Structures are given as C-alpha cells and as structure tokens.
Amino acid sequence: MPLSTPKNTRRRVHVRRIEIEGYCHEDGTLELDGMLEDVKDVDYPLASGVRKAGEPVHQLRIRVTLDAEFNITGAEACSDRVPYPGGCDTIGPAYGRLVGLNLLRGFRQTVGEMFADVRGCSHLTELLSSFPTAAIQTYASFQRDNADDGSKPFQLDRCHALQTSSPTVRSFYPRWYRPPPDPS
Fold first, then answer.
1. pTM recorded for the entire structure
2. Helices 107-114 and 131-140, axial angle in degrees (round to 10)
C-alpha cells in the first residue's frame, strides 16, 4: 500500500540517497560498498560558498570487507563531496578502526560510541547503521531462506513478520511455528 497523497501542495527541496552494494570475493568473503549523498533542489548557501542546485552537498563512501562470521577485516572511508573541504574530508582514516568489529554483535551501538560527536562524521556513521542488514541480505543471496538443515532459520524472531508465533511463520516455516502465549 503506498503512502497517502499529500494534503498540501509541496515541492521537493532535498534528496538523500543511501546505496549499499554487496559483493562476494572469489574466496567467499563479502564486501560492502556504501554511499550517502545529499543533493538540494535549490541553491544552498554555506559558509564555504553556495552549492548550486543539483550539486551534491555530501557524497561519502565506506567499504568494509567481512569474513564468514561477519567480522570486519578491512575498512576504508572517503568523502568525495563535503560542505567544508579541508575539514570534513579528513576524517576517513578514522574509520579504519572498524576492523575487528562484528556487524551482527552490538555493531550499531559500538559505532555510535566510537564515532560520536567530533570523533567521526555524523553522515558516515549514519550510513554504517544500514550495513548489518545489507550484509545479511548479501549473504542471503547464497542461501535458501527455508532450507531444512535442522537449524532454526537465521531470520526467524528478528522482525515482526517473522516472529515464530506469527501467521507468516505458520505458513512458510511450519516446523518453527510456536503458538502465541495464552494471554490469561
């Protein structure tokens, strides 16, 4: 079901694009390339000068390499377009500290703490918040989501629709369905 029709006349003035591409190396390791881009549809006055409509205000990239357990074994970040050249574009090397983190174990909280405030770039850090689920989707490209190998499918009990007491699980994963607790 789509969003409702806006009640008031409006015009777009800003677009944020977040794109994450997942890759598989020949050795089976995964790599994620992420990009965050902000573009204004109007001329945007900044202390560093006017950014013309259609020119990116931000264009930031992060790449992480992952082993089979979702541990980060390589990381790099760069800032191709920034509002304050010579300032914003110098933080990239700090994101090398991602190496050793696990995308599936406390990643978002740890990243938030590591790169909070002046220790990082708020936009790069925000981009990283989408990496855990993008990694799972990349990995899932090679897995059958309902393969019956005896272990509980990874995705169950990780979102509303796939709660083991849901009608969705009863229909698509009947082996793992558990009736909801009795409310009385």
1. 0.84
2. 140
